[in-house]
Give the backbone structure.
Amino acid sequence: MGITTKDLAQICGVSRTTVHRALHDGAGRIHPDTREMILRVAKENDYRPDLLARGLVKGQTFNIGVVVLDVKSRYFAELLSIIGAEAGRQGYFVNITLHDNDKETEKSQLTRLADYHVDGIIVSSVNEGDEYKNFLRGLDIPIVSVDNKIADGIPFVGIDQRRAMTDATAKVIEKKYEKLIFVCPPMEDTGKRNIYVHRERLKGFKETVEKYSGIEISYLLDWNYREHVESVLGESRKTAFVCSADEFALEVMKRMKKSGKRAGRDYGIIGFDNIDILDYVTPRLTTISNSVAEVAETAVALLFELIMRKQEGKNWEEPAPCKILPYRMVEGETI
Amino acid sequence: MGITTKDLAQICGVSRTTVHRALHDGAGRIHPDTREMILRVAKENDYRPDLLARGLVKGQTFNIGVVVLDVKSRYFAELLSIIGAEAGRQGYFVNITLHDNDKETEKSQLTRLADYHVDGIIVSSVNEGDEYKNFLRGLDIPIVSVDNKIADGIPFVGIDQRRAMTDATAKVIEKKYEKLIFVCPPMEDTGKRNIYVHRERLKGFKETVEKYSGIEISYLLDWNYREHVESVLGESRKTAFVCSADEFALEVMKRMKKSGKRAGRDYGIIGFDNIDILDYVTPRLTTISNSVAEVAETAVALLFELIMRKQEGKNWEEPAPCKILPYRMVEGETI
DNA sequence: ATGAAAGCGCTAACAG
DNA sequence: CTGTTAGCGCTTTCAT
């Protein structure tokens, strides 16, 4: 492959240690002339350190791993972009891997990253529960989960999903909607994938509607919701869809449009996530924004803190920090 | 950190070589009982091989790197997802890194991946030209570029951008549009970023319009196109925008909407790329789809071929393979 | 069937 | 200021 410090040492007629000193500022005294000469030769021969070897001996790679479900949602896109920028600022590189919604894939991605000695990992997990927590602990590496909470004891950064949905629902009710239809994935998916956020949002919704009376409630909790949209819509009462994700809301709107119904006029609808394609959709969907940028920045900061702690030999696993960030209501034209 | 083969050897009272034999099938004769015993102990202690060490000694990591601009477009999202699946099938893992449109970032990502001994790289580059080609060659690692062609001599997988635009333009003209406005980034950007695809598309456009007479042509080649949209639109003749990217088309439509003009009725417009958000925009934009899935699969297959060649000590840099794949016209309502 | 020893390329501790 | 030596954890000859 490329040239090594050994080669450089030979060419320059010095020892490998001297080469090392020339290459690294803090690594001991060296005569400026030798230094310069070595650096020149190194540059001439396009010397590049073998990062595997370095990582092996230092036990540190200045890499952080990120494992996300997929990359199709804008939320992840932005998250990744910010994590990359933030980590880069600290001299770290980011290794992204995908698990495409598969639990085993996620595990092997995490294991592999750990075995490659990444210094820390940020994960948006499909897995959840205590067993998984033990698996993560076993990796013996700082891990921060974002978006989906995994279990108590695993550092987590996200927004208060339940309270956000509480607010959203209250807002809808204030606008005099009399029939509310909650749209989210089936709760049976628990165990199959991490639907933590949707469970929380559902809780928030239920909590709120119970406080009011005279409101008709209905649920679309399965993947056939697209077909059921129209049938569930009562003509008589002022109806709104409360969706646990913008994607669902967009699907509903698409469907309704075919029947000539317009959001904000013929029915109300509110989403969640504030994905960026909403900018191109009319009417503007009212939704909730979970502050991606803040989540990303906080997660990175937290991860670095854990990494530092571990390096200093401190206890870094307990207590597991948990940062709940604010969300923001995005006013649109659909409620 | 974790337990090592040395530890296992000690626990089992055998040599490290024997442990190694137990762990790897093809690594020499070993007594079934010893083997089983070692494997049991290994499992009990959750032994996991240090991948840095292995990579260092084998010079091979079973990792491939992917460097892309970002993951905000559906195109990349899908590309990554398919690359991941395809590579996984071959026992490889994928390392994604982003360059966020920055040339230097891209270079350092590539360098880093190479220095971590990934076995090969797939890149959608912002850089282009012969100098960059030399840089890539210097990495001494199989690289396949997708989407944006970098230079002759660097393996490339993508569609024939020029011919696609030729077809698109012809289609517009057939529909009796008399004035065509081409919208794309300024060509001066060559050197600043990789606008290979846009250059090619522009060529295709020019080629085609020259074949017809009586057609009025005009260009929006700068970043202020948003403001110029209306002024450039002649009232008298049937006018269409030919855009070198869907994003531009969406901007134009947004602008026109404000003046009450509707695409497909008051003017024609065609995009390029078939980005996913088009599904949510009305009227449906007519556009061209480059076959992501095929690009991804072909790129991975090609990369593996190069990797194999290199491992077998064959010449893998010349000749650089180049696969041009078919594109597809997506019929919308705007032409 | 098992073991000893060398080496991948780098860093670190200890001499001189 | 420079060199020697040892070691990270794994794989790979070459002996026994």
Remarks:
- The longest helix of chain B spans residues 292-311.
- The longest strand of chain B covers residues 63-68.
- The radius of gyration of chain B is 26 Å.
